[in-house]
Amino acid sequence: MAAITPWNFPVAIPTWKLTAALISGNTVVFKPASDIPALAAELVKLYDEAGIPPGVLNLVIGSGGEVGDLLVNHPEVDVISFTGSTETGRSVLTQLSGRMKRVSLEMGGKNAIMVMEDADLDLAVEGIMWSAFGSAGQRCTAASRVIVHRAVERELTDRLVERARGMRVGPGLDPATDVGPVINQRQLQKIHEYTEIGVREGVKLLVGGTIARDGELSRGNFYLPTVFGGVNPSMRIAQDEIFGPTTAIIAVDSLEEAIRVNNDTRYGLSSSIERRAGGRGGEDLGERSWSRHFP
Predict the structure, then answer these.
(1) Of 3.10.450.50, 3.30.450.40, 3.40.605.10, 3.40.50.300, which CATH number belongs to 2-106?
(2) Which CATH class is domain 111-294?
């Protein structure tokens, strides 16, 4: 088996893949993302210390083009487990066409939190802030869309903008930091390019939308928490995975429209809804608020 993993969860994702394969009696070739080779090496050392026999778990370092493609096409690799971008995953699947290999692909997402007119907005705001801006938005399950009922759009938007404006951007190892850096300069530029795309498409840039240039932040890859308003579901910032601390607010008039907008992307990964228990379509659980997550 070949395990090809991304940079954003450099221990969790490899551990899920490697441990399951090893306890099932497989040998594994592990290729981490090019941005995190040192972490991958330390992880493999832990497996070695745990007593994995030599040659059972093998670490290879290199780019996708140099090493990843070689593993995908190698005749003695029977299974490919890949987590990464949709574009790369599509390339893996194309290369495997006709090769009769087993493949598992976990790729991108354009996830949404739906906030209905009867939602507890305090609860909704907390969920959105963590999901959209936690890990600087560098999660495949990050909420890069907020689909909100028009009846509470203004209030929710004002709260999100206020909270985003007050978030502390800084080093990831500082406990006081709310939003840390993005992975590299290339990703930083990609995020900002999507901001520019959104502005050209006519969205309202409500807060953020810039690379951090002040003081020590100018030495790193920091992007200010960004909220877009007035977003149409067909716009690119509502369709493409940005992978940064940005979220787009989309207003709807009903739960049915929210579900339709939620499903109107080429991705399918995670979703959640915020509304009052006992609301239309929900269980009669009194006045408690609830949220649900749909993988």
Answers:
(1) 3.40.605.10
(2) alpha beta
Catalytic residues: 106, 140
Place of tokens 């379509």: 281
Rounded distance between C-alpha atoms, residue 241 and residue 108, angstroms: 7
pLDDT tens digit at each of 295 positions of the chain: 999 999 999 999 999 999 999 999 999 999 999 999 999 999 999 999 999 999 999 999 999 988 999 999 999 999 999 999 989 999 999 999 888 899 999 999 999 999 999 999 999 999 999 999 999 999 999 999 999 999 999 999 999 999 999 999 999 999 999 999 999 999 999 999 999 999 999 999 999 999 999 899 999 999 999 999 999 999 999 999 999 999 999 999 999 999 999 999 988 889 999 998 655 544 443 333 444 444 4
Task: Kindly list the distances between the CA atom of residue 23 and the CA atoms of 16, 65, 149, in Å, as whole numbers in the listed order.
Answer: 11, 29, 47
Cβ(123)–Cβ(274) under 8 Å? yes
User: Tokens in use for 37?
Assistant: 């080779």
What does pTM read for this prediction? 0.89
